[in-house]
Amino acid sequence: MTSIGTGYDLANSIFSPDGRNFQVEYAVKAVENGGTAIGIRCKDGVVLAVEKIITSKLLKPGANKRIATVDRHLGVAYSGMVPDGRHFVDRARDEARAWRDTFKTPISTADLASRMGGYMQAYTLYQSVRPFGITAIVGGFDSREEAPVDGEVGSGPSCGAGGKVSSKTHGGPFLYMIEPSGLYWGYYGAATGKGRQAAKAELEKLDLSGAEGGITLEQAVKEAARIIYVAHDDSKDKEFELEMTWISGADGPTKGLHQEVPKALREEAERLAKKALESDDEDEGTEEKKGEEKMEE
Amino acid sequence: MEFGNSGSLSEDGIHLDMDRLKKGEVNLGTSIMAVTFKDGVILGADSRTTTGAYIANRVTDKLTQVHDTIWCCRSGSAADTQAVADIVQYQLGLFATMNGKPPTTQTAAAIFQEICYANKDRLTAGLIIAGWDERHGGQVYSIPLGGSLHKQPYAIGGSGSTYIYGFCDAHWKEGMEEAEAVEFVKGALKEAIKWDGSSGGVIRMVVLTAKGADRHLYLPDTDYKVRHT
């Protein structure tokens, strides 16, 4: 970077002459070193998965979770500096709780993403703080059913309310990714961390927009596991753990809650992922041989 | 909190102190109601405002808008209920601009309840919240004196309501047509006005549906038969 040493990279709140905030760009670099994290939004739910690099054999397997639950229906996965991620999750929980206190109803995924995007952005403005060294993936399932006001008494009319617009549907699965700059977009599939390029390439191959009917939640779990295995770089990091959570609607396996994918399903997904990788390697091997033969001719 | 000796204990054990107004305070000795029907919800009220035995206003509007299709019926202290409605109107306006979508009736009810419960020692406010939104259709919430929140198919309130429990129980039906529901509300309020000394004047209604808010006015001159605009 030619800009280093020019002094414009020393603090937030000072633009470089060509309109960049270098502190934010350095924060993005911190994210690029983190374990891969991905999110998949499919027709009946959301899957979050992270590649948790094992930095020491003394760490207890399965402990120190990297995907957090923010509210019953909301989960956050992140890549980058873990303490920053923990603080982000704390704040997200506060926002979700404050929303419930005020409006007596769960916060929607879009509103949480908006609040947290605003929070991240605020850390790019002041001398006294640094930007977050994480990119967060926020997944949630907003209830399709009518939810009661928290704490209300009585169930209301048994016939339900009159005058609903029946053609309109409400709620559903949602996925957002928030970057250190505070920028956030809604996604069908999101990836961040060191393996993001490979992960994005794999995500783009999936039918997530529903153009051809879309994939199911169980398929998405298997794809998520495979993508984390594909994105993992054996030469740099030997050991990693796959951590996966999912959220379905009230009629699905998690009943609208953000939960860890059951062990049996995760292990099955990992087995398939490893198998898919092995067959890929074999394909590459045969191609190389053909190439060599051609050279000899 | 001190309880007066004129209070009554309602069926769910909530202590209702009927003697809470200051001397000379303007009271909405009232008959109010809101009912759900096939296409939405109807709010109705009489129009009498009293200061003791004196009728301070004979054409009061007790149906107050807090958002496009979320309204409330006010009973109790005129000053208290106006102040609470003003706060909620501000909050819902802010909600709509911040989130780019209109608030739901339950959001409105939740904000009303928070204010009524947090200030229960200082307020005399019996409110009925009624609204229409695309997701839930027409809904009715009642917030009586203590600040609890009740979702109901229909709700009646104010001093005049005591006379029409039987009428409403006998005549209310699920999923009424609009004209039928208007006649039900009118019939109930006519009885309340007839029997309750602190209710009277005109009958006002607001019909909330997908088409928005529609006001009705019925005068005693014609025995509430003709709809005036």
UniProtKB/TrEMBL annotation, chain A:
Chain residue ranges for the region called Disordered: 271-297
Domain Proteasome alpha-type subunits intervals: 8-30
- Which superkingdom? Eukaryota
Q: Where is the composition biased (Basic and acidic residues)?
A: 287-297
Could you tell me where this protein is found in the cell?
A: Cytoplasm; Nucleus
Annotated keywords: Cytoplasm, Nucleus, Proteasome
Thylakoid as UniProt keyword: no
Write out the GO biological process terms.
Answer: ubiquitin-dependent protein catabolic process
Query: What Pfam families does this protein's entry cite?
Result: Proteasome (PF00227), Proteasome_A_N (PF10584)
PROSITE patterns linked to this entry: PROTEASOME_ALPHA_1 (PS00388), PROTEASOME_ALPHA_2 (PS51475)
Q: Which GO terms describe its cellular component?
A: cytoplasm; nucleus; proteasome core complex, alpha-subunit complex
Residue ranges annotated as transmembrane are: none
Task: Give the similarity note.
Answer: Belongs to the peptidase T1A family.
Q: Relate the assembly described in the record.
A: The 26S proteasome consists of a 20S proteasome core and two 19S regulatory subunits.
**What is the protein named?**
Proteasome subunit alpha type
UniProtKB/TrEMBL annotation, chain B:
Superkingdom of the organism of origin: Eukaryota
Spell out where the chain crosses the membrane.
Answer: none
One annotated Gene Ontology cellular component of this protein: cytoplasm
Which PROSITE patterns did the record assign?
PROTEASOME_BETA_1 (PS00854), PROTEASOME_BETA_2 (PS51476)
Chief location: cytoplasm
GO BP of this protein? proteolysis involved in protein catabolic process
SUPFAM superfamilies attached to this UniProt entry: N-terminal nucleophile aminohydrolases (Ntn hydrolases)
**Where found, per UniProt?**
Cytoplasm; Nucleus
- Keyword set for this entry? Cytoplasm, Hydrolase, Nucleus, Protease, Proteasome, Threonine protease, Zymogen
Q: Where is the active site?
A: T30
What's an example of a GO molecular-function annotation for this chain? threonine-type endopeptidase activity
Q: Which reaction does it catalyse?
A: Cleavage of peptide bonds with very broad specificity
Q: Describe its assembly.
A: Component of the proteasome complex. The 26S proteasome consists of a 20S proteasome core and two 19S regulatory subunits. The 20S proteasome core is composed of 28 subunits that are arranged in four stacked rings, resulting in a barrel-shaped structure. The two end rings are each formed by seven alpha subunits, and the two central rings are each formed by seven beta subunits. The catalytic chamber with the active sites is on the inside of the barrel.
The protein's role, per its UniProt record: Component of the proteasome, a multicatalytic proteinase complex which is characterized by its ability to cleave peptides with Arg, Phe, Tyr, Leu, and Glu adjacent to the leaving group at neutral or slightly basic pH. The proteasome has an ATP-dependent proteolytic activity.
Q: Report the sequence similarity comment from the record.
A: Belongs to the peptidase T1B family.
Under which name does UniProt file this protein? Proteasome subunit beta
- Lineage, please? Eukaryota, Fungi, Dikarya, Ascomycota, Pezizomycotina
